[in-house]
Write a structure and sequence with these properties.
The complex is a heterodimer of chains A (404) and B (134). Chain A has 404 residues and is an alpha/beta fold. Chain A has two domains: 242 residues, 3-Layer(aba) Sandwich (Aspartate Aminotransferase, domain 2); 121 residues, Aspartate Aminotransferase, domain 1 (Alpha-Beta Complex). Chain A starts with a strand and ends in a 14-residue tail after the last helix. Chain B has one domain: Sufe protein. Chain: A. The chains are: A alpha/beta (404), B alpha+beta (134). Chains A and B meet through α8 and α12 of A and β1, β2, β3, α2 and α5 of B.
Chain lengths: 404, 134
Amino acid sequence: MKAVYLDNHATTPMDPRVFETMKPYFIEEFGNAASRNHQFGWRAEKAVELARKQIASLIGCTDKEIIFTSGATESDNMAILGVAEMYAEKGNHIITTNIEHKAILDSCKVAEKRGFNVTYLSVNKFGQITVDDIRKAITDKTILISIMFANNEIGSINPIGEIGALAKEKGIIFHTDAVQALGRIPVDVENMKVDLLSISGHKIYGPKGVGALYVRKKNPRVKVSPLIHGGGHERGMRSGTLNVPGIVGLGRACELARTELVQDAEKQKHLRDRLQKRLFEALDEIYLNGHPSERLPNNLNISFAFVEGESLMMGIKDIAVSSGSACTTASLEPSYVLRAIGVGEDLAHTSIRFGLGRFTTQEEIDFTADQVIKTVKRLREMSPLYEMAKEGVDIKSVNWAAHH
Amino acid sequence: MSYSPKVVDHYENPRNIGSLDKKDPAVGTGVVGAPECGDVMKLQIKINKNTNVIEDAKFKTFGCGSAIASSSLATEWLKGKTVDEAMKIKNTDIVEELALPPIKIHCSVLAEDAIRAAISDFQKKQSAGGESKS
């Protein structure tokens, strides 16, 4: 079997329909969308404006509220640091969670260096935040709440609509990083009272290097100080010549995400549930990380006790997944998300994230289940921990000599 | 990260997986590492008391491919060596043989620790046995 790609939280393959839409904008339609004085520029601008509408209709806003960026990392940086700078006179307090993407956490660290106070709320054991947690953290200095829509490792979904209502009631700006949620579950900035929302192209079968930030224009009108200065593009919030082919691709990807959301989500949920069922039927001592039902339809995150994640990935080498194991990162630290939801470091090292996508087939899922089951059994036969557990030794009670 | 062909070979065809009777006075057992750190190695050697030669070596490892390969290689090298020769095995020898990248050097250190722990366990048993006889 051809290599199986189940790492769709990291990136997705481009949908061929997106690629076809982008194609003319590399060579024939090369115009600068800011060239107002000739037809090359007009055609580029027209393509960009169509993309803006396509994105707006996916998230329920108007096209004027979409600011193009280089990707969601930039969008997140803009949301945190741009709001911090713009509203510094109003207050200096930001609320977020401890399982946000690094683009949020690291931006918050920068804000702290600039004199802001950041509250990193702890999530519950499912990786979710509650409205009450946020309500308690709000002070009269709070200017921004930034909570991810759904987590990239464990897929847990936050109550975004409830948080939006609270933020509105308190007059605080509300940002959500919707990178993983978009195209997988319904996202509506009007109903959910979201003020700022980060979008990535390559997570929704679009191109890499392009993203967007939704910035609310009415009730209230939100302003964001620019991070990148220059020609005053994008209502002055983000200068730089627009990446026309990328934007065209992002627009088309959003249109497909909107029209195919229901069928994509149903199909992926069905396959995900099939994989989960097969693994849990065949293997003992495996644990689901994240919420049993309030999770993205394409996400499955499991700890396979007594089997280290990287060695498991090595055994299923024709299947692309990712692991919360330290050995897969440069830092040698296991996943901070898993630790935040109370998964012990021993189990964090054994976790595997399966991320299904639009093009995942049942054949691939069955192949994956077979390979994982076979490899876990093989590695447990050579695991001293499994042997100890079978002998009735409590692994946690052993006085391990730490190293590193 | 990509793996060297030797690491892949040891991972796919690990040598000497298994366990020896840890109560046997001729067997030395070393268990090193910690589950929280992502790797635990159990290495066992069976020593001929008359010749001081390691006649058998077994391992079980919880850890990444490089940790599995390091311990598998260690058991291969240990068999047929005397205890004194075994003490001379250095983690750098393992690094070189398996072409481990810098981030995986700790796997070889762990294997060296496991060898020493197994020998030390054997020697403790020997001296304890000697004391009980006297």
